[in-house]
Amino acid sequence: MSATLDNVRIVLVETSHPGNIGGAARAMKTMGLSRLWLVRPQRYPDPQAEWRAAGALDVLDAAVVVDTLDAALADCGLVVGTSTRQRRIPWPGVTARELPGRVAVEAGGRPTAVLFGREASGLSNDELRRCHLHLQIPANPVYPSLNVAMAVQVVCYELYQDLATRTEATAAADVWDRAPASVADVDAFYVHLERLLERVDFIDPANPGQVMTRFRRLFGRVRLDETEVAMLRGMLSEIERALSGTEHSGPK
After folding, report:
1. Can you say whether residue 184 is alpha, beta or left, with left for phi > 0 and alpha for psi between -120 and 50 degrees?
2. Half-sphere exposure of 2 (CA within 13 A, CB side)
């Protein structure tokens, strides 16, 4: 199995039909992926999941079940959310065919999570704004909605076709000098930033508007690394200290 494929995490959010969980596991195994995470599945474990998984029970048995999306994403570096709808605030997008090139940048680093939402409603706006990229699968505009397991199959197929044959030399061209920041660290930065912006009256807590959503989009495009997040957090702390009228005790 490609080491890059092994670093891809398929995340199903609040799946209602266990058959789709089994179908997703089977789709993953046929394309060399094995990391399945389930966020609050409505029915799991379930015999229908095992029946649909067929020869992929090993993927199903190894699935990680968590109660929150935070738990599924905390250690990831890149988060991609599948969506069939355009949002009021446009977001960086990618097609399933373009996705492998973006995932290859993360090779050897933090896991990449690809999120698939609920059968009836997909991912919520709040969940989608947690993502660096929104992924759409081009389909018949008259009826563009794919079953969850089918969507997983399409994405896994495109990942396998590219990443399973990607050479070390190709991947080396994308090496960065620092590891990408984890989702948990970047989220902590957003909390810190919002707190400071409220303190200086840049954001009205009673009417915050889309300010933080747009900051998420901005920094999501930049793809912060560990050092950059630490620098930004340090900068915010120094500003808070200055606002409080206290002196910095460390080296200048």
Report:
1. alpha
2. 24
Query: Which pLDDT belongs to residue 86?
Result: 65
Domain extent listing, the chain: 5-172, 183-244
Q: Report, as ranges of residue numbers, the positions in the chain whose pLDDT lies below 50.
A: 169, 172-173, 251-252
Q: What local confidence, expressed as pLDDT, does residue 107 receive?
A: 63
User: What does CATH list as the number for 5-172?
Assistant: 3.40.1280.10
Max alpha carbon distance in the chain (Å)? 65
Beta-strand ranges (E) seen in 19-161 are: 35-39, 64-66, 78-82, 93-95, 112-116, 133-136
* Residue 232: predicted pLDDT: 97
Looking at domain 183-244, which CATH architecture does it have? Orthogonal Bundle (1.10)
Whole-angstrom distance, CA of residue 130 vs CA of residue 234: 23
Q: For 25-84, write each residue's pLDDT tens digit.
A: 999 999 999 999 999 999 999 999 999 999 999 999 999 999 999 999 999 999 999 987
pTM of the model: 0.86
CA pair distance 91, 245, nearest whole angstrom: 39
Q: Between helices 183-199 and 226-244, what is the axis angle to 10°?
A: 20
| Inter-residue contact 56 to 182 (CB < 8 Å) | no
Q: At what angle do helices 211-222 and 183-199 cross, to 10 degrees?
A: 140
Give the Cα separation of 14 and 211 in Å (integer).
28
236: CB partners within 8 A, 6+ apart:
189, 192, 193, 196
| Half-sphere exposure at residue 210, Cβ-oriented, CA atoms within 13 angstroms | 9
